[in-house]
Amino acid sequence: MAPGVAPEPIEANLTFKQWAADWLSRRRAKEISVQGYESAVRVHLNPRWGRQRLRTIKKAQVEAWVQEMEANKSIANSTADGHWKVFKMILKDALQNGKIASNPTYEVDGPYVEASTSYVFSADECWAIYDEFPKHYRPIPMLGFACGLRQGEALAVCDDVIDTDGKLLTVRRQVLRTKESGYSPTLVDRLKTSPRLNTKNVPIPPYLQDVLDEYMEWRPPRPAANVLWEHKKTITECKRGSVQALFWTRRGNLVCRNHFNDDAWKPTLLKLGIKDEEGNLPTFHDLRHTFISTCLQNGIPEHTVAAWVGDTVEELRRTYSHLLRDHADTHGAIAAGLTARPKPTLVRAAA
User: Fold this and answer.
1) Where would you tag: which of 66, 88, 158, 332 has the fewest CB atoms within 10 A of its CB?
2) Is there a contact between 251 and 245 (Cβ–Cβ < 8 Å)?
3) Which residues does 229 contact at the CB level (< 8 Å), separation at least 6?
4) Are the C-beta atoms of residues 305 and 279 closer than 8 Å to each other?
5) Ramachandran region of residue 232, left (φ > 0), alpha (ψ -120 to 50) or beta?
């Protein structure tokens, strides 16, 4: 603070619920993120902390609450972790705005979160899914296992992102269902990692190019409104463009993930009998894991794979560290040979 400026007096009666509402009103994150924050505050944080005055929340209380969440079997580890992150953001914001003198979450470890496991499809399973999939959605799973696209990205493929000459697929938009659009599927020029990354390019395998060409000949792309998203603007504030979208429902609507999962993805996997070790159906996102795992296991550099799928190298290492460790067997001998002591050369004596 500037010299001579006194800090604002701490509001003694300000409750957590009041400040959480103020904090929520200032969020400019993606709408789906804000909805998650609102849900966490309404369902879990306010019932636990809402009536308590901010300045009376102590570190010991926070530590006890974390232990309660870990012991509560009805709360998944990932859900508890999400509640914890929102709680920390609210308290940090209160400290930065002078509403509390110290942050009770400082140096408190959050709930333990078990490492998540992903299903990796075999090549036979990938092609069995393609062969069995409803014809009007058939290329969509291939975009997952051949290019590593997320589900929303695969549903949003338009003809302007397919570079036949360069054999590249440019990923720049996704299908979203938002409160602002009345929860109807909407094409938005925005990646999950925006604003860090606006587009990403991934090679198109020849077999996928053939499938897309055949599909577009059978079902020509149709015009659709496209939201030209800008950072820190709501969807209603953004300008609109027009694109030619590849995938439509039989009723002429853009494909949303709920409809796709219930009417195509789950029935196909059930028919093929594809389940994980616990008997659960793999998700569409597991196709992306399959693409990344296959690339890493076959020696494609991690920075290249990260660029293709739109992750950072750090994220890739954190999620797929077990595969990168496996490279010790395949590349370890080569690496060891690079720095081995040179063998002495035989020097012949001059005659």
Assistant:
1) 332
2) no
3) 188, 189, 190, 194, 235, 238
4) no
5) left
Predicted confidence (pLDDT) per residue in 99-118, tens digit: 999 999 999 988 887 666 78
**pLDDT recorded at residue 289:** 93
The residue count of the chain comes to 351
DSSP characters over 6-61: PPPPP-TT-BHHHHHHHHHHT--S-HHHHHHHHHHIIIIIHHHHTTSBGGG--HHH
Rounded CA gap, 110 and 179, in Å? 31
In this prediction, residue 71 carries a pLDDT of: 87
Q: What integer pLDDT is reported at residue 118 of this predicted model?
A: 81
Residue 69 falls in which region: left (phi positive, over 0), alpha (psi -120 to 50) or beta: alpha
Instruction: Please list the ranges in the chain whose pLDDT falls under 50.
Output: 332
Cα–Cα distance between 316 and 330 in angstroms, integer? 19
Question: For residue 294, which of 130, 168, 126 has the smallest C-alpha distance?
Answer: 126
Tokens 């994150």 identify what position? 29
CA distances from 212 to 47, 110, 184, 312, 338 (A): 51, 46, 26, 29, 44
Tell me if 59 sits within 8 A of 108, measured CB to CB. Answer: yes
Token couple for 221: 């792309």
Q: Which two tokens stand for residue 272?
A: 């093929």
3-class secondary structure, 279 = coil
Contacts 24+ apart (CB under 8 A), 296-299: 296/320, 296/323, 296/324, 296/327, 297/323, 297/326, 299/327, 299/330, 299/331
Q: What are the distances in angstroms from CA 58 to CA 62, 232, 271?
A: 7, 34, 54
Q: Coil, strand, or helix at residue 107?
A: coil
What does residue 346 show for φ and ψ, rounded to 5 degrees?
A: -80, 120
User: Taking all residues of the chain, what is their mean pLDDT, rounded to a whole number?
Assistant: 86
- pLDDT, residue 89, reads 94
Q: Which two tokens stand for residue 241?
A: 């463009």
Residue 346 has a pLDDT of 60
Residue 348: what pLDDT? 61
- Please count the other Cβ atoms lying within 10 Å of the Cβ belonging to residue 168: 15
Measured between its terminal Cα atoms, the distance across the chain in Å is: 85
